[in-house]
Amino acid sequence: MATGDPIAIAVDLGGTQFRVAAITSEPRILHRAAEPTGAEAAPDVVITDIARAVAGVRARVPSSPVIGLGVAAPGPLDHLSGVVFHAPNLPMWRDVPLAHELRARTGLPVLLGNDANLAALAEARCGAGRGAEHLVYLTVSTGIGSGFVVHGHLLLGKHGAAAEAGHMTLSLDGPLCGCGNRGCLEAYASGTGLVNRAREAMASGRTSALAGRGADLDARDIETAALGGDGLARELIEQAGTALGLGVRNLLHLFNPEVVVIGGGVARIGSPLWDPMLRVVESDALSVYRQDLRIVPAALADDSGLLGAALLVHETRSESRVPGSEVRVPSIARASRAPKLRAADSELETRNAERETLNAQP
Ligand SMILES: [Zn+2]
What we know:
This protein is α/β, with parallel strands linked by helices and 362 residues long. It folds into 2 domains: 7-120 and 303-359, Nucleotidyltransferase, domain 5; 130-299, ATPase, nucleotide binding domain (Nucleotidyltransferase, domain 5, 2-Layer Sandwich). The chain has helices at 43-59, 98-106, 115-126, 185-189, 191-203, 219-227, 231-255, 271-284, 287-290, 304-321, 348-359; strands at residues 7-13, 17-23, 29-36, 66-73, 77-78, 83-87, 90-96, 110-114, 135-140, 144-150, 153-154, 259-263, 294-297. Helix 1 crosses helix 2 (98-106) and helix 7 crosses helix 8 (271-284). Zinc ion (ZN) is lined by residues 167, 177, 179, 181, 184, 186. Zinc ion binds at residues 167, 177, 179, 181, 184, 186.
């Protein structure tokens, strides 16, 4: 019989690799594994690979009761139905009932969340915003993801699609975004946005060291060129920082957070990006929003999705152990007190019965 601390198995599904870990409620990572996702593979193949990796990680913690599987997946997705509608970097993924399929293959209750939302939860609980009740999280990478913790709860919205700050409009006639609209924050400040803007500038006659990179040009090249003094690269990063500052300013005015946590590969460019961002916030945001405000780099790096997925499972279990209790801060914001975060398939009652069985374990 399992006698150790309760464990959540967490999965972080990325475009190039998926990662699996056994994680305690603290949260502490006990064991982990990573495998290539096979972005061009059929979802069914990927899900089978994930289920096998989950079994492998479970086998490493034989004495611990496994209370559920938490999955951080790229959005948009519906956390209630457990369906991934569309996954950036996974072109074969359309309307995939991921939670249902993983449950069928692992026998575990499955909770699904957007990877940026779950990273926000992790940063609020055990990362750069540890203990914050009001947190804004941005991940500036190939795209821009975000998550908001409001009064200690993750903000999800009616369909779980809230918190897409990358697609807030900063300019009516700005650059075209991957979403089809113009002037999104992501079109200015993401890695993809930086590359697109560099290409457009060079196509219109700007000279730059970036021209030598041709089709392989990426955000890292722009960072390197900026450090080498390339005028276009410096200008683009400065503009990206200014756009991020405008985005953060908008979010301060909407959410009045204690802390803004910024992660992702592009954010690691550092002061050439951060300085213009902070200048905009300091000069433009109303003073009440800047009182005691911290704007800090993410602390959990690549583990934020895994930790958030595990926290989702542990916190949902804690809620269900004390029905009606106001003591434990639940992870998910909701309009009414009544329904807890629903397990991600139609067999909710069966699963709740399973959870009660799990909860009854010492
Ligand atoms: Zn957009």
